[in-house]
Design goal:
Fructose-1,6-Bisphosphatase, Chain A, domain 1, 29% helix, globular, 17 strands, binds 6-O-phosphono-alpha-D-fructofuranose, five-stranded mixed sheet
Amino acid sequence: MASRISLTQYLVEKQREKGLIPAELRLLLEVVARACKRIGYAVSRGAIDGVLGEAGSSNVQGEVQKKLDVIANEALLEANEWGGNLAAMASEEMDHPYTIPHRYPKGEFLLLFDPLDGSSNIDVNVSIGTIFSVLRLPEGVKEPGEEHFLQPGTKQVAAGYAVYGPSTLLVLTVGDGVACFTLDKEIGSWWLTVERMQVPRQTREFAINASNARHWQPPVKRYVDELLAGRAGPRGTDFNMRWVASMVADVHRILCRGGIFMYPRDDREPGKPGKLRLLYEANPMSFLIEQAGGAATNGHQRIMEIVPTKLHERVAVFLGSKDEVERVTSYHREVSR
Ligand code: P6P
């Protein structure tokens, strides 16, 4: 059997042969991957260890926290606070950034994460995951604050997710394509199983929570109605729909076989630009999708060019197969004009 490439070897080669990533970033990514192993183990124990159900608290989003949300957040903080690669961390589960304690050295990177995405699926054993994004601390900053996280997605130096499903997978980009690693739970190694993931330009599959249809804005209604009209309609072909309600699972399917994922703004809360968070959900997923040849917009502009104004800012998301994202975005632009 050809010898498999491990995550460590993949990152060392990116560091050594391509000079793509500094050693500190390689070490940071290996620590994050190790924390994801820990989270995947806790998730897999489920009811046996009594980690299902609610934690009895809520997060900054006003959402009820599940016990595993808190466990996953703690796992990422504990794994990353002492290594010397980070200046601070930001999480969906924490109101404010977590600054590295003074007893540890600070590094040049900022880590942002949704420690456990898809929480509504935890108690029903559907795939969930961890999403992470890495930024550089701006030059000359000694004490990192919230404002230093407010960088557009184009400034990301790495992004990825772990998906805790039938297999535990780690999908990662450092700006040179998207690689997929499968966890060998016997020995704890992440083995490279897809060297370069590609999103087909075209697709016959879309992902949206159709129960919100009555709240959608006209461009989304038009786009989805055309898909639903099938071969008798303007698209001249039939489409299929999937909605896992775990962004990680839906995005992974799109990276594997194409598709378009949509979470638009809707009229339920007109003041809210969308449900998903820009900095630690939409930006890392957009980086991955673009690195795999897809596209990601908020209906009007490239998600990765949005300059954030708040740490937990939300955004509308249309991402996946380029032709479909460009079509639904053009419908938004027609209305704007
Ligand atoms: P809805 C999970 O809570 C999440 O943040 C994403 O992972 C997922 O795509 C979306 O929300 C699901 O939202 O409204 O369909 O439950």
